[in-house]
Write a structure and sequence with these properties.
CATH superfamily: NAD(P)-binding Rossmann-like Domain
Radius of gyration: 18 Å
Oligomer: single chain
CATH topology: Rossmann fold
Helix content: 40-55%
CATH architecture: 3-Layer(aba) Sandwich
Largest sheet: 7 strands, parallel
Low-confidence stretches: 251-256
Order of helices and strands: EHEHEHEHEHEHHHE
Mean pLDDT: 87
Structural class: alpha/beta
Strand content: 15-25%
Number of helices: 8
Length: 256
């Protein structure tokens, strides 16, 4: 029998909630009882997310945040705590994946990936850690199958996610009263990654992956399914170290 997801009363900050997985996480969390603060740069998008959560009967506040600015990270966490009355959980879902071959990658490209996918995660955590320690809370970071398989064009993204894994380990060592979880995510439909690349660039790199036999999966997950799996880690009483959320193979005997 399926377990009903219940996050009743959980005070949750989702960074990177304006689109894609972060948006799906906010919608589902608000619908199962969590008090949600949504953070990202695009306030208009956040207002849409918050409006949808409220229309469904959930609680949601908008907190603008630019993860490339330390002051903005601090302000976003403080505003979330003020609005929610504390903080029980943090989800870092912000990320970029701009396809570029290593030979063409300049220093600015490296900085964009590392600052968003790695440094931003640490700076938000640094701001949130006093409140998470007070509540003996949880912090969850969305990682990627890219840590297991290198793909031409996504090396910068993959390296930043491998570094994120070590970052999570370091935070665990320094703050053992907080539960830190890495969520390894497989192919998921509805994200903004490919749409930002453009049709021509997407076709170019997908062709490289398919020809090299490197495409990670022939199937895609729905955003809502990925979000439910990730939020289940917050609903459990026990500690979840690592969570792998991958699409089901088409040849699975249980595939409808």
């Amino acid at each position: 029998m399926p377990i009903k997801l219940d996050l009743g009363g959980l005070r949750l900050l989702i960074v990177g909630a304006s689109s894609g997985l972060g948006r799906a996480l906010a919608g589902l969390a608000g619908g199962v009882g969590a008090q949600v603060a949504v953070a990202a740069r695009r306030r208009t998008h956040l207002e849409e997310v918050a409006g949808a959560v409220r229309a469904a009967g959930g609680e949601c506040v908008v907190v603008p945040c630019d993860v490339l600015r330390d002051a903005s990270c601090q302000e976003a966490v403080e505003a979330s705590v003020a609005a929610l009355g504390g903080l029980d959980a943090l989800i870092y879902a912000a990320g970029i994946a701009d396809p570029v071959l290593l030979r063409d990658a300049d220093r600015a490209s490296w900085h964009r990936h590392l600052d968003t996918n790695l440094v931003g995660a640490s700076q938000v955590t640094a701001a949130a850690i006093p409140f998470l320690e007070a509540s003996q809370g949880r912090a969850l970071y969305v990682s990627s199958y890219a840590v297991r398989q290198s793909l031409p064009g996504l090396a910068l993204y993959g390296v930043s996610k491998v570094a994120l894994d070590r970052l999570v380990e370091a935070w665990r060592m320094e703050h053992p009263t907080v539960d830190f979880t890495r969520a390894l995510l497989g192919n998921t439909e509805g994200t903004e990654f490919a749409s930002r690349w453009g049709a021509e660039r997407t076709a170019k790199f997908v062709k490289l992956w398919v020809e090299g036999g490197l495409f990670p999966s022939a199937t895609m997950m729905k955003l809502e399914d990925a979000a439910e799996a990730i939020l289940s880690a917050l609903a459990l009483r026990g500690f979840v170290d690592d969570l792998a959320v991958m699409p089901r193979r088409r040849d699975s005997p249980t595939e409808p």
